[in-house]
Write a structure and sequence with these properties.
The complex is a heterodimer of chains A (271) and B (276). With 271 residues, chain A is mainly α. Chain A contains 14 helices and no strands. Chain A has a single domain, classed as MetI-like fold, CATH 1.10.3720.10. Helices cover 74% and strands 0% of the residues of chain A. The longest helix of chain A is centred in the first third of the chain and has 30 residues. The relative contact order of chain A is 0.14. Chain B is built from 11 helices and no strands. The chains are: A mainly alpha (271), B mainly alpha (276). At the A-B interface, helix 1, helix 3, helix 4, helix 5 and helix 10 of A face helix 1, helix 3, helix 4, helix 5 and helix 6 of B.
């Protein structure tokens, strides 16, 4: 719709420049200068020294994303085949946990996973354990999967509701088995949802710091932790922190260009 | 026969999945009634945390601050975003594309980067203000918190309202003008009622994002503590079961809103069916 009201956007345009564009330019400026404000590449070189942390973050986020995809796919399919009235309430049930503060839910996992917590007690009755589950890389991945799996389910579900049930039936009538239906029909037709879901899980996973700090102990530092320490922690250095943020942004951009078949329909389903 | 097995398997899987999703929440609710303060051992049932929650001034003031920031920032973001959506919709293709792409940045950027970039802006401002004698130089706190929350909320409003505007028939607006409305009247009497569901839902989205935001507030709150920030500093030491009590209350409220609205919807749906 076209109304002749272009100037209504003026306040937002000023806002957008001031609080979206300028801050990012400042990040770039800090990343390429030293404390005196002279041009330098030293900050970026120092980021190279934290290569192992970057690799760990990427690997853990990748694991979490793949696990989310595997876990979410059957759930999303199940939801998309329910009656309309039931779909509504089930979707609400998927989103309800997101309404509880994520720090508290993660803290609850700290209790659940601890050495004398309920899970180890239960295993104890079966004569197993106790296992050290807290403060491991596995616990960090669990925290990411738990917190971000709804972001995978929602776009997958939006894609799958568009798959006509008769297509699946036709495939089965023509003799396709379960695996063939999955590989040849369901997965190709949900590609837009898969792409959106991957970015929506990967981006927050690779940049988190609260989850790794709570579930990973001190030994599983991620990029987010490094950045946080440069800005508010004990290794205060805004320039190095900005350089790290810049590298993180490039990683995210690269990841998104792989999965950039964003169409607006999928985004609407998520928001 | 084979498909029947598959269906049972699928159902079991979905049930297990929901158990996984709700396990920590069940744990939180259980431990809000726990006598002991720890997070691993359950020693007995009590309501004392609910009682002491009502007198815990630091949790309550954090809660009020969160609600205050959420309300103010959501109102501003909704008004500014709706205006922007209307303005952008009436622009040419090129400028529309440019602006929507820049608006996407805070949506797709990692939250930590939005947080630190705003923090750097405020730090730069403070350096600048320290050299001038008329600019206020203590902005870290409520002003920066509000700016940060508006900044991450406006894009969601714009992307929610714009599709609704696109669906709307421009002839309705033109008809109103032809029938003697001023542009202002035509906007308030024709356009706004048409897009109001999208505006309202954006406002609610802003409220929930704002109340729950941790990452961006963390870098831009100065010494103030919203509820998520207070929870975070507690998780560094020991979470008070009073927070569990507060979350349990919130969970029950949200769950009942969902159940009531769902019951109401299916009721009106059935009514519709009968009428037909």
């Amino acid at each position: 719709m076209k109304l002749n009201n272009r100037k209504l956007a003026a306040p937002y345009l000023v806002w957008m420049v001031l609080f979206t564009v300028v801050p990012l330019l400042i990040v770039v400026y800090y990343a390429f200068t030293n404390v005196e404000g002279a041009f330098t590449l030293e900050n970026l070189a120092r980021v190279g020294g934290y290569g192992s942390v970057f690799v760990r973050s990427l690997l853990l986020a990748l694991e979490a994303t793949v696990l989310c995809l595997i876990l979410a796919f059957p759930v999303a399919y199940f939801l998309s085949r329910l009656r309309a009235s039931k779909q509504h309430i089930m979707l609400m049930l998927v989103m309800l946990p997101m309404w509880m503060n994520f720090l508290l839910r993660t803290y609850a996992w700290m209790g659940l996973l601890s050495v004398n917590g309920p899970i180890n007690t239960l295993l104890g009755f079966l004569g197993l354990g106790p296992y050290t589950m807290l403060n491991t890389a596995g616990a960090v991945v669990l925290g990411m999967v738990y917190n971000y799996v709804p972001y995978m389910i929602l776009p997958l579900y939006t894609s799958m509701t568009k798959i006509d049930a008769s297509i699946v039936e036709a495939a089965q009538d023509l003799g396709a088995n379960v695996r063939q239906t999955l590989v040849r029909i369901l997965i190709p037709l949900s590609v837009p949802g898969i792409c959106t879901g991957i970015t929506m899980v990967f981006v927050p996973s690779v940049s988190t710091f609260a989850i790794s700090r709570m579930l990973g102990g001190g030994a599983n530092l991620l990029i987010g932790d490094l950045i946080e320490m440069q800005f508010l922690g004990n290794s205060y250095n805004l320039n190095v922190g900005s350089a790290m943020s810049l590298v993180l942004m490039v990683i995210v951009l690269l990841c998104m260009s792989f999965t950039s078949s964003f169409d607006e329909d999928e985004m609407e389903g998520v928001m | 026969m084979k498909t029947k097995h598959l269906r049972v398997l699928q159902r079991t899987y979905v049930v297990l999945f929901f158990c996984f999703m709700y396990l920590p929440i069940a744990y939180m609710i259980l431990f809000s009634f726990n006598q002991n303060k720890g997070y691993a051992l359950f020693t007995g049932v009590t309501l004392k945390w609910y009682k002491s929650l009502l007198t815990n001034s630091s949790i309550l003031s954090a809660l009020w601050l969160s609600l205050e920031v959420a309300l103010v920032s959501s109102v501003i973001a909704t008004v500014m975003g709706t205006m922007a959506a209307i303005g952008i919709s009436s622009m040419g293709r090129k400028s529309r594309l440019l602006i929507t792409n820049v608006t996407y940045i805070p949506v797709v950027n990692p939250e930590i980067i939005t947080g630190i970039s705003l923090m750097l802006l405020f730090v730069a401002y403070q350096k600048f203000a320290a050299n001038s004698d008329w600019l206020p130089n203590t902005i870290m706190g409520l002003p920066t918190l509000l700016i940060a929350h508006i900044a991450f909320n406006v894009p969601y409003v714009i992307f929610n309202v714009m599709p609704k505007l696109r669906q709307m028939d421009v002839r309705l607006y033109e008809a109103a003008l032809d029938l003697g409305c001023t542009p202002r009247q035509a906007f308030f009497k024709v356009v706004l009622p048409e897009i109001s569901p999208a505006v309202l839902s954006s406002f609610l989205i802003c409220l929930t994002y704002s109340i729950d935001d941790f990452m961006i507030s963390y870098f831009n709150s100065g010494t103030l503590e919203t509820l998520p920030l207070q929870i975070y500093s507690m998780t560094r030491k020991k979470v008070s079961p009073e927070i569990y009590a507060l979350s349990t209350i919130m969970f029950v409220i949200i769950l009942s809103i969902i159940l009531i609205s769902n019951a109401w919807e299916s009721h009106s749906y059935k009514k519709d069916q009968v009428r037909r």
